[in-house]
Amino acid sequence: MISSAAFIAICVFVVRPGISRIIRKTPEGENFSEFYICLILTGVMICGFITDSIGTHSVFGAFVFGLVIPNGPLGLTLIEKLEDFVSGLLLPLFFAISGLKTNVAAIQGPATWVTLFLVIFLACTGKVIGTVVVAFFHGMPVREGITLGLLLNTKGLVEMIVLNVGKDQKVLDDETFATMVLIALVMTGVITPIVTVLYKPVKRSVSYKRRTIQQTKPDSELRVLVCVHTPRNVPTIINLLEASHPTKRSPICIYVLHLVELTGRASAMLIVHNTRKSGKPALNRTQAQSDHIINAFENYEQHAAFVAVQALTAISPYSTMHEDVCSLAENKRVSFIIIPFHKQQTVDGGMEATNPAYRLVNQNLLGNSPCSVGILVDRGLNGATRLTSNTISLQVAVLFFGGPDDREALAYAWRMAEHPWISLTVLRFIPDEDVTDAASTRATNETNRNMNVDMKKQRQLDDEYVNTFRAANAEYETIVYIDKVVSNGEETVAAVRSMDSSHDLFIVGRREGMLSPLTAGLTDWSECPELGAIGDLLASSDFAATVSVLVVQQYVGPWAQDDEMDLPDSPVHYHDQPNAIYGLEDPS
């Protein structure tokens, strides 16, 4: 024990400062040299040898050495280099060796087997009962208490290590070791299917009606959730938010969510930042990016009018990252989610993918979002850098074909058009009469007839909303409405290309599931179906203009009509400085 205490003291007061010095000598953002990695791995073996020599166990030495390595880039680098080797080779070998050590024949006699199952039952029941009692006093449902109690009975790697250490040290004989291994195996194997059957988490939908921009009242707060992957996404998003025209009558509450891939830790987490409190210096690149993003939005909040910002960081795997976004959007009663496109513009004007996993997040979010979603194709909101002058410099265009997504796009553009320095052009594409008659003639069977009825209903809703928009904005010179009659996809593309050089931002609907002869053939060569036919055309590298694009999908599910659910869940403070748009420098 004295030797072990001395070993721990040496690791804490000698080894840890040495590793911290290695971290300080490596510049931020650069990889650690192979020499340092080999030195640390050698240290693992040396520590294991020392503790084995003093009579403890080699696992204890390696464990203590791992504890003294500071959290940060070095730990992440070690995990990246060793995770595949350890999980793919060493871990299966360890479990295989543990299985070979287990001599089930050492458990002799029915009394021993009865004792074995009695221990399993009592151990499991005791934890479940204790957890249910505590859960009851904390107001948790009984079903969740039972589930949590069952999860406490699962065994894993640590238990197997302890049992192997006990056997190596002659503390456990063959019979006891086999009994404990079987207990761990049976409890873990049985509990998993029981929990799967017993606990089926149903998504608790928060009842609020303002899940879309179209349903948000003009004199109420607009809540927006902004997702950011890297600091490069920040300038265009801030300019877009400022162009959304926050006013005293209709302020904007912005939730900024920095999306970070889960690496180097066991479970996902959500971090809430205080944007008005300066933090400590960044320990790693991820934290430095978060600080950069938070500082940019904090600066925007301080200088803009009627804007409130709350910054958060979500650390989770890309495969489940959309669940964090959806959960936060629902808890905060958000009306609109803005997320960056997975491609970015290159120097020559083309588009290249930054991370294929971003596309998976976008696709999952579109399929599960509790509110409207906008995918922002960032090509630099060029006009926004000139909005400090007294002239209209930001030209916004809406390509309206019809359907709920296009109506949502028009609703967002309508809000932007109220800004005194923003002009809006709405180009509505109307099918030629011959095309309409041909579509009606083909509606012979029941499926086509139902589709035709739905198209007529959508067209009626489109007409009502467009007429309301035109009547409300007839006197404004900065808002232009144009009807464009086209017959096929080629004429549609020609009309879109005729507008590409005179606008800074296109807002279009995704139009998922909306069939139209006006976009026929455009989806056949689509690279990114999640943008829709028109959005994919505008975002493609073949499109001549370098214009930012916002592809909007409206939430069409049911929402509650209880006005009480629209009350803010926390006090929101807005700044009252004069309204202005800031063209920030690219922080990357």
UniProtKB/TrEMBL annotation:
Pfam family, one: Na_H_Exchanger
Domain Cation/H(+) antiporter C-terminal residue range list: 393-557
Keywords: Ion transport, Membrane, Potassium, Potassium transport, Transmembrane, Transmembrane helix, Transport
Domain Cation/H(+) antiporter central, first and last residues per copy: 252-388
Annotated localization: Membrane
Primary location: membrane
Statement: the UniProt record of this protein carries the keyword Nucleotide-binding: no
Membrane topology: Multi-pass membrane protein
Stretches for region Disordered: 567-588
Membrane-spanning parts: 6-23, 35-54, 60-79, 86-107, 113-138, 177-199
Domain Cation/H+ exchanger transmembrane: 4-195
Entry's family note: Belongs to the monovalent cation:proton antiporter 2 (CPA2) transporter (TC 2.A.37) family. CHX (TC 2.A.37.4) subfamily.
Protein name per Swiss-Prot or TrEMBL: Cation/H+ exchanger domain-containing protein
Species whose genome carries this gene: Brassica napus
